[in-house]
Every structure is written in structure tokens, then in C-alpha cells.
Design a protein that fits this description.
7 helices, Ubiquitin-like (UB roll), alpha/beta, elongated, 5-stranded mixed sheet
Length: 256
């Protein structure tokens, strides 16, 4: 390639949903990227706008490499998202062994998504006022998957597992997360408190009468209570609507 002195050029191509992070004119096409000095492939990928936790496989000139690979002049770099159906057993994986227990941590703008994930029974840490530095530290120390639409936060070097919901609609975001992390068989609805993430347990009505409104005391007989914050839950119109959301997730195949 013809370059100015000291300038190198590599060709990047992104596959599948990684194109969501690129300008439309760069979708599914070779992107020439000029750079100087010693640049890791991770740095150049993120300079184009794609957060590294979204990437699961990098091929340079057809060979699997890790994030620390030093990009060379003339390299052809193919960047892939997490694979669900393709066998990449012998490729270099870009993150540690998958988590046995799926746990999430969400930034302050995803409060409704946090509640919906808890509704499905998933362990979700959420604080609407948490600072980015603390959020990133907790994601690492607690081995949680970071969900955020803040691409800058997702690009932090310490973050190993994360995802950027593409939609701004909480139900659509929920569908994305269930698909992305293959959660259908892990759903345990109405086992966690939507407010604080505590586990729910059956509670005798006589023990919570002082917490109930008169109509509820009269007509409802089966209750669950959060073991952490004490919030009381029972079946009602809102749980029917949530139950329909869960049924839709289970009955409708989610396109990949």
C-alpha cells in the first residue's frame, strides 16, 4: 500500500451486529484505517467505534489473534461478534471461560430493563446514581456482565464482559439480552424482588396484614415477600402483564 512515511494502513471488516456501531457507509465493507506507531488491534477496533466486550473473534490475514496483537501495514482484519452456531473451538478466545452463573450490572439509564431482568429471576445489580468508575470496578470484582448504552464505558480496558442494548425500548432490550446470552432456559420468573434484587419467599398472610391495604387483605390470599427489603408481592393485573411478556419470550423464536 502507498503510505506517507511512517504511516501504515490496515483493512478492517466487521460482521453481523458489530456493524450497529459503525456509520452506515461502513457497514459490511472493507474499512481502510491509517495509523502510526505500534497500535494493538484492540485499540484500532475501538477507534472505529466498536467496544471490545462485543468482540469474540479477530482474524488477521485469516489467523486468529488476541487483543494485544500489534497491527502491521497491509493487515486484513476481520472482526466477529459472539458466535452462537459456529464452532470456533480452536480459535483464540478473547475473554475468560464463560460465567457459570449469569449475573448482570446495569448503568443508571437502564432501570426498567433491570426490573424486567429481575422479573425473569436474574441477579441484577443496579443503582441509578452509581459513578462509572464504581460501576466498572463492581462489574469486574463481582464478575458481572455490564449492560450499558454508553459505548465509552463499555470500552474501558477493565471490562471483560458487556453488551450495548441497541434498542431504547425496555421490552425490546429484554429480548436482545435473552437472545444474546441464550437465557430462555434460565428464566425463573417471580423469584426476585424487582425493586432491590433480593430473593422472594412465600409468606403467611397473617404475618404481613399490617402491610396490606383493606381490599388486598380481603381478596388476596397468597403472597411472596422479599428477604432483603420486605416488599410484598401477589398475583394481580401487573403480574398478568409480566407473565405475558415471559410467555412471548418463550413462545416466539427470537431471530439471530
Amino acid at each position: 500500500m502507498a503510505n506517507q512515511e511512517g504511516t501504515k494502513t490496515a483493512l478492517f471488516r466487521f460482521y453481523a451486529e458489530l456493524n450497529d456501531f459503525l456509520p452506515r457507509n461502513q457497514h459490511f465493507t472493507d474499512i481502510p484505517l491509517a495509523f502510526k506507531g505500534r497500535q494493538t488491534v484492540k485499540h484500532l477496533i475501538e477507534s472505529l467505534g466498536v467496544p471490545h466486550p462485543e468482540v469474540d473473534l479477530i482474524l488477521v490475514n485469516g489467523k486468529s489473534v488476541n487483543f494485544s496483537y500489534l497491527t502491521r501495514d497491509g493487515d486484513r482484519v476481520s472482526v466477529y461478534p459472539v458466535f452462537e452456531t459456529i464452532d470456533i473451538t480452536h480459535a483464540i478466545h478473547l475473554r475468560p471461560t464463560p460465567l457459570r452463573d449469569i449475573r448482570f450490572i446495569l448503568d443508571g439509564h437502564l432501570g426498567r430493563l433491570a426490573a424486567y431482568l429481575r422479573m425473569l429471576g436474574f441477579d441484577v445489580a443496579y443503582d441509578s446514581d452509581i459513578a462509572d468508575e464504581i460501576l466498572a470496578d463492581q462489574a469486574v470484582s463481582q464478575q458481572r456482565i455490564l449492560l450499558t448504552r454508553d459505548r465509552g464505558l463499555l470500552k474501558r480496558k477493565s471490562i471483560l464482559r458487556g453488551y450495548c442494548p441497541r434498542s431504547t425500548d425496555p421490552i425490546a432490550q429484554l429480548q436482545e439480552i435473552v437472545r444474546r446470552f441464550d437465557l430462555i432456559d434460565r428464566i425463573q420468573p417471580f423469584t426476585r424482588c424487582m425493586a432491590c434484587n433480593g430473593l422472594l419467599h412465600d409468606v403467611d398472610k397473617s404475618n404481613i396484614l399490617h402491610l396490606l391495604e383493606p381490599r388486598t387483605r380481603k381478596h388476596i390470599h397468597h403472597f411472596k415477600q422479599c428477604s432483603v427489603c420486605g416488599k410484598v408481592y401477589w398475583r394481580g393485573h401487573h403480574t398478568e402483564k409480566m407473565g405475558q411478556v415471559i410467555e412471548n419470550l418463550r413462545s416466539r423464536p427470537i431471530s439471530k
